[in-house]
Amino acid sequence: MTTMKELTTKEMPSWCPACGDFNILFAIKNALTEINVERENIAVVTGIGCGSKTAHFISTYGFEGLHGRTMPVATGIKLANKGLKVIVVGGDGDGYGIGGNHFIHSMRRNLDITYLVQNNAVYGLTKGQYSPTSMKGFKTPTSLGGAIEESVNPVALALTMGATYVARGYAYEVKHLQKLIVDGINHKGFSFVDIFQPCSTYNKIQTISWYKEHLVKMEEIGHDPLNFGEAMKKAWMKEKLPIGLFFKADKPTYEEQVPAASVPLVKQDISNVDIKPLLQRFK
Fold it and tell me: What is the fold of 4-280?
């Protein structure tokens, strides 16, 4: 079993005090000690953003890609070696903004990937612009009149586009979040966990006290995660925002349906492959 000590790197996070990223990192590392998978069989892919430095702080294979482009990288890794546990970590701007198209199609394909989105409803890294999940009317230094768009509903979008494990957690409910991450990693198919988190520097509305007032656990209100219709209804709740597992289903994964992905690329025998005809075409 992988230990917390083995997962710890010499690099230290430099996030703002009270940032939810600290708790999310702790929940992820605890989850990795629980799933009983060796570090060499785990790949963490991140994008650009405050929390997207997460791969620097977990001693597994890691890849920090371009802003919004985590999913193409994660897809390539999974198809190259479907035996790897591929975990993607990004922010709401990274995943729902510039990476929204990749987010949609990765869910539609049902790749066996776990996607954890640190959703603080603001662009924290670039000084507080409003993000796709910011409330309508949210004022920032670059939107003095407030955001004019309706915010994205990531859970409803994930349900619509076919993710087979859809959940929402909260950074200050670490044990609750850890369980969602463990179950998501163990799930066979696209696992999505939207994670509410306060941004102590740039989001002065959705604070720790705000979340305490507005969140409710699925366990408290009752929910059947096999019921798609009920999952969608709870995804659109406004007064109280549920955290927990919304929906779970069993479907064939994308890589199971790709014959070339049945054996890791590095183990495929290419000794009898003649590339001369291919090279001739480019002369």
Answer: Rossmann fold (3.40.50)
Residue 130: pLDDT above 90?
no
3-state secondary structure the chain: CCCHHHHCCCCCCCCCCCCCHHHHHHHHHHHHHHCCCCHHHEEEEECCCCHHHHHHHCCCEEEECCCCCHHHHHHHHHHHCCCCEEEEEEEHHHHHHHCHHHHHHHHHHCCCCEEEEEECCCECCCCCECCCCCCCCCCECCECCCCCCCCCCHHHHHHHCCCCEEEEEECCCHHHHHHHHHHHHHCCCCEEEEEECCCCCCCCCCCHHHHHHHEEEHHHHCCCCCCHHHHHHHHCCCCCEEEEEEEECCCCCCHHHCHHHCCCHHHCCCCCCCCHHHHHCCC
- Model confidence at 78, in pLDDT bands (50, 70, 90)? very high
Question: How much of the chain exceeds pLDDT 70, in percent?
Answer: 100
What pLDDT does residue 36 have?
A: 87
pLDDT tops 80 at residue 128: no
